[in-house]
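testing teh design pipeline on a random one, pls ignore if ur not involved
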């Protein structure tokens, strides 16, 4: 006897995507199974495929959501008036996000990239590209700071951008390992001392 397929049940796509994001954030792409996703999203596999495509496609949508929503503090940081304020706002925003008790610990762009198999290399590259965009935006911002006299002539915007991005990722890793927000803010204060002042002289 042939049983007719039932109609896919209706569900809140936005809420389901948020649930998928949190699973990927907590377990990483490779550690997340389709069963993990369907359970968290409250849907069956046919509904998942119909609404989001395959697992990789769903991951990319979750990644876009994270960048647009949870990581929105990055845009605010880039609009800060000085190079030092850019770094400070970026780090404090990252600390607030990665230690939030209502969200998985750490940064989705770091946690979700914990992949090792060749079959998920495309995911690793996608996440690396996203992280690279932050560094590129920082470099552009620091180049403007240098042109405005907000950084000393010897400061290298590209090196400074990489430094700030590296500290940001390091704070996320520490947060994922359980470091408190207070402890990470103290680390950020130490790191901020390395951002050159406009009047700082080369050694």
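output:
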């Amino acid at each position: 006897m042939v049983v007719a397929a039932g109609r896919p049940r209706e569900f809140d796509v936005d809420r389901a995507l948020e649930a998928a994001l949190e699973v990927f954030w907590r377990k990483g792409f490779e550690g997340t199974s389709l069963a993990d996703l369907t359970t968290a999203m409250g849907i069956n596999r046919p509904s998942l495929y119909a609404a989001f495509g395959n697992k990789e496609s769903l991951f990319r949508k979750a990644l876009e959501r994270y960048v647009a929503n949870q990581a929105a503090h990055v845009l605010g940081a880039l609009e800060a008036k000085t190079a030092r304020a850019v770094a400070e706002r970026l780090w404090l925003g990252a600390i607030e996000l990665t230690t939030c008790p209502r969200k998985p610990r750490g940064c989705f762009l770091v946690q979700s990239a914990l992949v090792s198999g060749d079959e998920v290399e495309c995911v690793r590259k996608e996440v690396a590209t996203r992280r690279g965009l932050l560094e590129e935006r920082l470099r552009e911002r620091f180049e403007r700071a240098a042109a405005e006299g907000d950084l000393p002539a010897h400061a290298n915007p590209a090196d400074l951008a990489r430094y700030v991005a590296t500290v940001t990722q390091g704070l996320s890793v520490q947060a994922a390992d359980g470091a408190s927000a207070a402890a990470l803010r103290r680390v950020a204060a130490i790191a901020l001392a390395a951002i050159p002042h406009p009047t700082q002289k080369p050694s």
